[in-house]
Design a protein that fits this description.
Blueprint: H1 12-22, H2 27-37, H3 49-62, E1 71-76, E2 79-84, H4 86-94, E3 99-106, E4 110-113, E5 116-119, E6 121-128, E7 135-140, H5 141-144, H6 150-154, H7 156-173, H8 181-192, E8 223-225, H9 229-233, H10 242-253, H11 263-275, H12 280-286, H13 300-313
Parallel strand pairs: 7-8
Antiparallel strand pairs: 1-2, 3-6, 4-5, 6-7
Helix pairs in contact: 1-3, 11-13
Amino acid sequence: MSTAVAERPANNQSLVAKFASKYSIDANKLLATLKATAFRQNGSQEISDEQMAALLIVADQYGLNPFTREIYAFPDKGGIVPVVGVDGWSRIINEHPQSDGFEFLESEEATTFEGKTVPVWMEVHIYRKDRARPIKVRERFAEVVRASMQPWKSHPSRMMRHKTLIQGARLAYGFAGIFDEDEAQRIVERDMGAVEALPAERTVSVPQPKARPKQVTQQAAETIEQPAAAARQADPVERIDKQQARQQAREFDDVNSTDLATDGEKKWVLNKLTGADIPVQQALDALGMSMPETLDGLTRDGFVALQDYVRENC
């Protein structure tokens, strides 16, 4: 599946005017300025107005500032791969109306990488005001590390913490259609060849408690293991459509902490499979799951398995 090409909205001019007014810049110069600063490209490829409009749509949807590189993009086959820096992820997490904080745990077992001691796994607990229990996501260093990248060589524990927070935020809040730089580079390298590495971006320091799993006092919740990053990060980019992204966010927001998947979760899986022309039974057989094609009786664990299958195949 090729990467997405965002349709240029009919009200693009009003969106340009909105950004120009927000950041006090001449509307006639806005697009040219952002084309020169908010895209990372290989060679002399020109950035189209449609690609610029796609970036503005995503920036507007998530309230991110392209001038401070909270969000930028790689051009990809006529579309874009929107990249959100760590400052941007921190903003959208903390500004979410249901955000109630988060904390990190790390394994006592450690490994050595580039002469530095790194925990084997790291876990983030994200608390929502409308949930009784935290969403827990664990990432393993061996699955997320990019050994050739300088930030990983110099600050492996910090980079692992960023990756863990980003994956947790996706599951907790349903953020769709945005990527971190590691993921974006994998996508573009797959589709268009290698791109130049960006300079190390500014990072924000999130307090990291030294707690161990036994110190957690919140209600117990299932730890959700994420799939291997190499598979997840190579996922194709979905069509960047503002209405669709909002719909996905609403559907993911229906996730609760009960043992059975919600109707919203089942609907999301069915819609994704239908859109990719994949029979529901084929997906169930591939995962060794036995249940009706309506997904009646689907558990939370089953939903997570189907969610991973969708990301890999749709």
